[in-house]
Structure formats: structure tokens, C-alpha cells
Specification:
- The protein is α/β, with parallel strands linked by helices.
- The chain folds into two domains: about 140 residues, 3-Layer(aba) Sandwich (Leucine Aminopeptidase, subunit E, domain 1); about 325 residues, Aminopeptidase.
- The protein is built from 14 helices and 17 strands.
- Strands 7-8-10-9-13-17-14-15 form an eight-stranded mixed beta sheet, with helices on both faces.
- Helix 12 links the parallel strand 14 and strand 15.
- Helix 2 crosses helix 3.
- The longest helix is centred in the N-terminal third of the chain and has 22 residues.
- The protein starts with a strand and ends with a helix.
- The model has no long low-confidence stretch (mean pLDDT about 95).
- Bound molecules: zinc ion (ZN).
- The site of zinc ion (ZN) has 6 residues, from helix 10.
Length: about 475
């Protein structure tokens, strides 16, 4: 977090004459800040002040400054973020060192989203260009109504989201399971999280056949399940996070065509989301104990790789008939969920870029959720609306399991007939919870990459899920 935030009280009125770069959220056009020059440009564009509820006005002022104006309107978090993001993109296009944010209204929602969106888009993301254009932004002067406590929370979530984006965007030759595990170990010691790993030989000995089926196809066999724990001195609840960390997904022997294999280094996004939430929760010192389990592997082709018709035995003793080697996510998650749920917690939340089916159902603006507790699904939908990272709840009825009954094993991994694979995957995963009744939420991340950005984030890889998960944990704490 290299950007310094200066909180200014509302009385310290900002004047456009004294600043070079500003973004202004106004309630009325009568404010002095909305100068004659701004009014004249609005008129020239044949726009009304109310049009600034959905568009922005940019202005090059007479002091050679650049200013952007928006009108305060909706109370929908996603819409506020989107509106602010578009205006900010214009303001940040000149790569300024200092920006000034002004919020006329005391609306806490607008104040929060204004700072969150600005800070989120001021972070450096991975680049391998020989001439790197670093973001120059060093200072945000915030003229509005935010407490120091709110700023700490915003900084924590931005830090978690940025961690998730940075890991997800790292090229796959730089983020192999070996490298990823090293990075997590470093982070764990920096944040004082407990760190434990289960490597391939340990997992084989333990009988984690579902995870091993995927991990055995890579050379070196550097797949592992990583377990991190954040435990503050006092805590009110316990949460279990689980993340899918496939560092590259070729599809295995059922090889993906090039168009679909491209960008498969992002198939570890679920684990990056879980890590991002852990980062945000511990930086903000949330009074909750979090156990975070990451299933880290690659899905490769080779003589040892698993294949169709194999039958493997999972850690909980259930046998699985392999149907399609590209459905590796549910395999590595199955054993990770079993391990993660041997200890009870108030909620188990897993994140995974799991099915293409969810992307077909949702597009890339929403992610889908499933839960064995309808009240947890409802809470999650609310957390999604509040955080601007929207989720939609999908059916989780038992009779869908008829589709994945196997003649030779306890369960089929998936089907080859198409159908609702996102629901089949959720039903499949539920078979590996140690206690099927414990509150569990499965998040199928269809919105982890959205061309041109989504909500507050301008980058295609948007860190979706970190703020959602953070908000959900806060909501669970308040119950
Ligand atoms: Zn796959």
C-alpha cells in the first residue's frame, strides 16, 4: 500500500484553483466547485446536470488542472462503484502523483466507495514489459466524511484484493505450485499465520486419492494442500475457507482446445480469493479465527496423468469414476474439503473457478453460489449486494445426484451429456464434507475476469470475491 491517504474535514473546502487533479461527487450544480467553465462545457455537450448520474464530465481547468464531475444518485453499491470507476479512469489516464477526491454529500456509502475505488485502482499489478510504466500515484487527499477506522478497513480489503489480482495475473512459468507454495510460506510468516503443508507423498499415504489423481500428472510432483490459520487473541466465530489453486489447467488427457486453454493460469483464482480474504481479515484484525485450505496443483498430460474410466478412492473412502479429466477442480477440492471439515466451524466457504457452465449461466458479471443452508445462501446474496460483488443462488436439490450415479463406483465425477454441470459439481463436492450438515457455501467464480473491469476494479482480472467474502464474514459475525 504505497499510496498515502490524507483525510480532510468537510470544512476544509477544496478549490479547483488549488489542485491539479480532482474527482468530485456533487449533489447540486450550485456548489462553487462546479464552475462556470463546467456549466459551459455541460451546455456545449447538450447535457443536463442530472445526466451526470450515469455519465461523467471531464474538464481541463484554467490552472491546467484536470477535473471530473459525477452526480450523487443511487444507493446501489455496484452502480456507485461502476460510475466512480469510469470517472476515475479518465482522471488517472494522465498518471498523476496526487489526486483529490471530493464528496459533497455525507452519504457514507458514496464516501466509502469513492475511496475504495480510487485506492483499488492505484495498486501496481504484474507486468513483464521491459519498460514498466509504474503507477505514480502517491497521495489521495480525501475531502469527505470517513473515519480513520473506515480507512483502515478499506486499506485492508484493497490489500487483499490486490494480492488476489497479483497472484492470478502472474504468468504460469513464474507461479508453478513450487513457487506458489514458497510465496504463501513467506506471506504466512509475514502475517504470523500458522502454516502447514500436505505434500504429494503425505497425501498418497493418507489415501487422498482424488487430489493425488490430479497431482500425479505433473513433473515435478509439487502439488500440495496448504493449511493456514489466522487466530487473533480473542475471537467470536470460526470460519473455514477453501480455494481451488490449479496453477495451469491443460484439461489433462481430455485436452482443452487452445482458445479455452488460453488464460488457464488463472485457474488458481479461487485460492487467491481465499488468500485475499485471509489477508484482509487479518490486516483489519477481524475477531474471527480463520482456517484457510488451498488445493494447489496443475492439470497436466503425461504417462502418469489420470484418465477416463479410472476409479479412485477419495480421502473419505468414497470411490469416484473419472469421466472427464478437465473436471479436475472438483477432484482436488473433494479431499481438501474432507481435510478442512474434520474440524467444526461456523461456516465453510469454498471458492473455485469451477465450471464453464456457470459462465454460460451468469456471464462474467455475477458469480454463482450453492449452499446446504438456505439462510447462509440468503446472507451471502445480501453480502454480495452490499459489497458490489454480486452473487446469485442456484438450486442444490438432492435429486440432481441421480445424474451422477455410477455403475462401477460410489459416484461419477461429472457427466458427458452436458446438462447442469455447475449443479452437479456442487452436489459432487457436498459428498466430501465430513459432516454433511455443517453450514457450507460453494462459490463458483464465473466473474473473476471481466474485459474492461467490473464494479470497482478497472483491470480485467478483478479480484472478485475478496470483498464479498470479507463482507460475508462480517455479516456472519453479526448474527
Ligand atoms: Zn479443468
Amino acid at each position: 500500500m504505497k499510496v498515502k491517504i490524507n483525510l480532510q474535514t468537510n470544512s476544509a473546502k477544496m478549490s479547483l484553483k488549488s489542485v491539479k487533479y480532482s474527482l468530485n461527487v456533487l449533489k447540486s450544480e450550485n456548489l462553487e466547485i462546479f464552475s462556470d467553465l463546467a456549466k459551459a462545457k455541460l451546455k456545449r455537450l447538450k447535457m443536463k446536470f442530472n445526466d451526470l448520474e450515469s455519465k461523467f464530465l471531464s474538464l481541463d481547468g484554467d490552472n491546467a488542472g484536470h477535473h471530473v464531475f459525477l452526480k450523487h444518485s443511487t444507493s446501489n453499491t455496484f452502480k456507485i462503484q461502476t460510475h466512480v470507476r469510469k470517472g476515475l479512469k479518465n482522471l488517472l489516464s494522465e498518471n498523476p502523483e496526487t489526486i483529490n477526491l471530493f464528496c459533497e454529500d455525507d452519504d457514507p456509502l458514496w464516501n466509502r466507495e469513492l475511496l475504495y475505488t480510487a485506492l483499488l485502482n492505484s495498486q501496481d499489478l504484474p507486468s513483464r514489459k521491459s519498460k514498466i510504466e509504474k503507477k505514480q500515484l502517491k497521495v489521495i487527499n480525501f475531502f469527505g466524511n470517513l473515519s480513520a477506522k473506515e480507512v483502515v478497513e478499506i486499506e485492508a480489503i484493497v490489500s487483499g484484493n490486490t494480492l488476489s489480482r497479483q497472484l492470478t495475473m502472474t504468468p504460469p512459468n513464474d507461479l508453478t505450485p513450487t513457487h506458489y507454495r514458497q510465496e504463501i510460506k513467506k506471506l504466512a510468516s509475514k502475517r504470523k499465520w500458522k502454516f502447514k503443508e500436505y505434500n504429494m507423498s503425505q497425501l498418497k499415504r493418507m489415501g487422498a486419492g482424488a487430489f493425488v489423481a490430479v497431482g500425479q500428472g505433473s513433473d515435478p510432483q509439487d502439488a500440495a494442500i496448504v493449511h493456514l490459520t489466522y487466530q487473533p487473541k480473542t475471537f467470536k466465530k470460526t470460519i473455514t475457507l477453501v480455494g481451488k489453486g490449479i496453477c495451469f489447467d491443460t484439461g489433462g488427457h481430455n485436452l482443452k482446445p487452445s482458445k479455452y486453454m488460453f488464460s488457464m493460469h488463472e485457474d488458481m483464482n479461487g485460492s487467491a480469493t481465499a488468500l485475499g480474504i485471509l489477508e484482509a481479515a487479518s490486516l483489519n484484525k477481524l475477531p474471527v479465527k480463520i482456517d484457510c485450505w488451498l488445493a494447489i496443483a496443475q492439470n497436466h498430460i503425461g504417462p502418469k496423468a489420470y484418465k477416463q474410466n479410472d476409479v479412485v478412492k477419495a480421502l473419505n473412502g468414497k470411490t469416484i469414476e473419472i469421466i472427464h479429466t478437465d473436471a479436475e477442480g472438483r477432484m482436488v477440492l473433494a479431499d481438501t474439503l474432507t481435510l478442512a471439515t474434520r474440524t467444526k466451524s461456523d461456516a465453510v466457504i469454498d471458492f473455485a473457478t469451477l465450471t464453464g457452465c456457470m459462465a454460460v449461466a451468469m456471464g462474467d458479471r455475477y458469480s454463482g453460489i450453492f449452499s446446504n443452508k438456505p439462510e447462509l445462501a440468503c446472507l451471502a446474496v445480501g453480502s454480495g449486494q452490499k459489497s458490489g460483488e454480486r452473487v446469485c443462488s442456484f438450486p442444490f436439490d438432492e435429486d440432481y445426484e441421480e445424474d451422477i450415479e455410477s455403475d462401477i463406483a460410489d459416484i461419477k465425477q461429472c457427466t458427458l451429456e452436458g446438462g447442469p454441470d455447475h449443479i452437479h459439481a456442487a452436489r459432487f463436492l457436498s459428498q466430501f464434507l465430513t459432516d454433511p450438515k455443517q453450514p457450507w457455501l460453494h462459490v463458483d467464480l464465473s466473474s473473476s475476469n471481466t474485459k474492461g473491469g467490473l464494479g470497482a476494479a478497472m483491470s480485467d482480472v478483478n479480484g472478485f470475491g475478496v470483498r464479498f467474502g470479507f463482507s460475508l464474514i462480517q455479516d456472519i459475525l453479526q448474527k
